[in-house]
Write a structure and sequence with these properties.
By secondary structure, the chain is mainly alpha-helical. It has a domain of 53 residues. It is 56% helix and 0% strand. The longest helix has 32 residues.
């Protein structure tokens, strides 16, 4: 039984070095992922009681405070978009006399 030579994994560092050297590294990328937009840091002021609430929630979920803030903010934005999308339909029903 012949053994086929195993392909060793190429590290991100070695790919970066090849790219820096001007070599074609396109074979290492499948385009299967999605592009993430750049992260921008912001400062937000919270009251001490709100921070306590966030910290309690983070501890309960065993995640960071930042993860709790991002999750709650995402949920609030999603709810806002759902409500905003429903508003024009409600106005159309109102104009049509449908309750």
């Amino acid at each position: 039984m012949k053994k086929t030579p195993s392909k060793s994994a190429v590290t991100a560092e070695s790919i970066a070095q090849m790219a820096d050297a001007g070599k074609n590294v396109s074979r290492f990328f499948t385009n299967a992922g999605r592009m993430m937009s750049p992260v921008q840091r912001v400062n937000v002021d919270f009251t001490a009681s709100m921070l306590d609430e966030l910290d309690r929630e983070a501890k309960e979920l065993n995640v960071s405070r930042q993860a709790v803030i991002k999750t709650l903010l995402r949920r609030a934005l999603d709810e806002h978009y759902v409500a905003a999308a429903a508003r024009p339909r409600a106005k159309e029903r109102e104009r049509a006399g449908v309750r």
